[in-house]
Amino acid sequence: MIYLTQLIYVNEGKEEIFHEFEELAIPIISKYNGRLTLRIRPKENTVIEHNIKIPYEIHLVEFTNQKDFDNFKKDEERKSFLHLKKQSIQSTILIQGVKIN
């Protein structure tokens, strides 16, 4: 299992386009043995400390393996609406990790 944390920074005023992209993209995750486990929209008053800009959203996602994640990124349906992502997202930080018991 691989675990991904994504910090998403949205262009100001492009939030609705981002929401449209997410509505299309999130369901495709499950086609590739993945699952969105947590989606957070932090606010300034809910962050205890930060040394980076607070992201618009934080996603926690898991995939069975790297191949499934790679196949998700190559999905043709997903590629058909990546223009929405490019219009709305300023930048992302993707952190890949493993579960520690």
Please characterize this protein's 3D structure:
With 101 residues, the protein is α+β, with helices and mostly antiparallel strands. The chain has a single domain (2-97), classed as Alpha-Beta Plaits. Helix content is 35%, strand content 32%. It contains 4 helices and 4 strands. It has helices at 15-29, 66-74, 76-79, 82-88; strands at residues 2-10, 34-40, 57-63, 89-97. A 4-stranded antiparallel beta sheet has the order 2-3-1-4. Helix 1 (15-29) packs across helix 4. The longest helix is centred in the first third of the chain and has 15 residues, at 15-29. The radius of gyration is 14 Å and the shape is flat. The two termini are 13 Å apart.
Structural class designation: alpha+beta
Helix content, binned percent: 25-40%
**Principal-axes shape call:** flat
Provide the number of structural domains.
1
Q: CATH first level: which class?
A: Alpha Beta
Question: In percent terms, what proportion of residues is strand?
Answer: 25-35%
User: What number is the mean pLDDT?
Assistant: 96
Runs in which pLDDT lies below 50 for 5 or more consecutive residues are: none
First-residue to last-residue Cα separation = 13 Å
Q: Strand arrangement, largest sheet?
A: 2-3-1-4
Q: What is the count of DSSP helices, taking H or I runs of 4+ residues?
A: 4
What is the count of β-strands?
Answer: 4
Q: What's the helix-strand series? A: EHEEHHHE
- Major sheet size, sense and barrel closure: 4 strands, antiparallel
Rounded to the nearest angstrom, the radius of gyration is: 14 Å
The CATH architecture designation is 2-Layer Sandwich
